[in-house]
């Protein structure tokens, strides 16, 4: 987890709002594209600096994105009814408002997985409208951005985030309990960017199906018959490194985390945390990134 002093962040979040009356006072323009090009995606820019939001709007509309802007938390919440494809969460005064919106998005069942690009205030303005230290350490993601920043430099990051969503992550679900596999498959079926390509009930079956199905992510339990999840992880990492293993287990002791990482796993999620971490974990691991931060920082011999 990078601290807010580090420049740069991107993360996924979401939410469902209600009315648009107050939001009409904020700038919304989805009609750019006098060129007639089809829109690449809908972006909500939340920031209380008019010059910055206008610069973002012009830059992104020139790239055929549909852009909405909001200058505060409540207008942004109302605009979420438009279901943007990505949110640029900039600076809001007083300090704490941006983080409050971040939390609201992350807790909302409908909006929590929308990609989020966080832009912190200029260093000298952070006590007034920036992300406070204790807030920043709670943010999941791999980079923050901070002002001053040119909107044009955001375009490649936005393209990358949106392209990630359009790619379907192929997932193999491995657990020796039929009901657990069924529950996981039901959750993944609701994700537009995920596809369950197969199931396995033991480590050997998992390894065989990885070789045949070539999933991006193998979601693997530790304790299983025939071959354990740890042994399967070793084989998968050696013979099919394109497939990244995400351990999902009830045995969440640190020694199991260490062994999992030594075996080549890219992620480790306790089953008790699956409801909040599973989707993010699959997305991170699918990109070849370790998950969560505690697992990434784990030093193994």
Give an account of the 3D structure:
With 301 residues, this protein is of the alpha/beta class. It has two domains: 10-164, 3-Layer(aba) Sandwich (Rossmann fold); 168-296, Rossmann fold (3-Layer(aba) Sandwich). 37% of the residues lie in helices and 19% in strands. Strand 11, helix 10 (254-263) and strand 12 form a beta-alpha-beta unit. Helix 8 (203-213) packs parallel to helix 9. 41% of the residues are buried.
CATH architecture of the largest domain: 3-Layer(aba) Sandwich
Helix content range of the residues, please? 25-40%
Q: Which stretches are poorly predicted, pLDDT < 50 over at least 5 residues?
A: 1-36
Oligomer: single chain
Report the sheet-strand fraction.
15-25%
What about the largest sheet? 7 strands, mixed
- Number of structural domains: 2
CATH homologous superfamily descriptor of the largest domain: Response regulator
Structural class: alpha/beta
DSSP summary, beta strand count: 12
Radius of gyration: 21 Å
CATH topology of the largest domain: Rossmann fold
Average predicted local confidence, pLDDT:
84
Number of continuous helical runs: 12
Our measurement of the CA-to-CA distance between the termini, rounded to an integer number of angstroms, reads: 22 Å
């Amino acid at each position: 987890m990078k601290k807010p002093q580090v420049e740069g962040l991107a993360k996924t979040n979401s939410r469902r709002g209600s009315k648009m009356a107050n939001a009409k006072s904020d700038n919304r323009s989805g009609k750019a594209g006098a060129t007639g090009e089809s829109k690449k995606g809908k972006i909500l820019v939340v920031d209380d600096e008019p010059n910055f939001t206008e610069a973002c709007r012009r830059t992104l509309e020139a790239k055929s994105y549909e852009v909405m802007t909001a200058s505060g938390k409540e207008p942004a919440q109302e605009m979420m009814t438009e279901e943007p494809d990505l949110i640029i969460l900039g600076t809001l005064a007083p300090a704490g408002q941006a983080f409050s919106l971040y939390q609201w998005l992350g807790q909302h069942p409908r909006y929590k997985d929308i990609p989020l690009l966080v832009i912190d205030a200029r260093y000298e303005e952070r006590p007034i409208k920036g992300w406070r230290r204790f807030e920043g350490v709670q943010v999941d993601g791999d980079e923050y951005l901070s002002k001053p920043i040119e909107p044009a430099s955001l375009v490649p990051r936005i393209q990358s985030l949106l392209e990630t969503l359009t790619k379907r992550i192929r997932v193999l679900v491995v657990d020796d309990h039929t009901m657990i596999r069924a529950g996981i498959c039901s959750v993944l079926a609701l994700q537009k960017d995920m596809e369950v390509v197969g199931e396995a009930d033991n480590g050997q079956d998992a390894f065989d199906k990885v070789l045949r199905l070539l999933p991006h992510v193998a979601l693997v339990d530790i304790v299983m018959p025939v071959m354990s999840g740890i042994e399967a992880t070793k084989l998968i990492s050696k013979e099919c490194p394109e497939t990244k293993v995400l351990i999902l287990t009830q045995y969440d002791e640190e020694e199991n985390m260490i062994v999992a990482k030594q075996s080549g796993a890219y992620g480790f999620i306790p089953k008790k945390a699956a409801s909040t971490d599973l989707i993010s974990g699959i997305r991170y691991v699918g990109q070849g990134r370790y998950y969560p931060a505690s697992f990434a920082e784990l030093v193994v011999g």
